[in-house]
Specification:
single chain; alpha+beta; Glutaredoxin; 4 helices; about 45% helix
Length: about 90
């Protein structure tokens, strides 16, 4: 599977929960298949996400096409507004 969404099931942040839910809702509405990777199951997954994103402080949600970094929530949201989600996810 190409698209990977790094997210967390354990967060006190309403913002993170809301952003994750919105990304999932939009991907589902566009029938884009993706793999959910829950970083709360182990610190190594969080570190992997941050290494791949090139940001030691990155927080979910983070989107990748295989191992190629696509962006974070703000970048995804901009792509939704511009109707360029497929390009953002490197699908087009």
């Amino acid at each position: 599977m190409g698209i990977k969404l790094y997210y967390t099931t354990v967060t006190a942040s309403r913002t993170v929960k809301s952003q994750q839910a919105q990304v999932i809702r939009i991907l589902d509405s566009k029938s884009i298949q993706y793999e959910l990777i829950d970083i709360s199951v182990g610190g190594e997954l969080r570190d992997e996400m941050r290494n791949k994103a090139g940001d030691p402080t990155a927080v979910p949600p983070q989107l990748f096409n295989e191992d190629q970094y696509c962006g974070n929530y703000e970048m995804f949201s901009d792509a939704v507004e511009a109707d360029t989600v497929e390009q953002f996810l490197k699908l087009a």
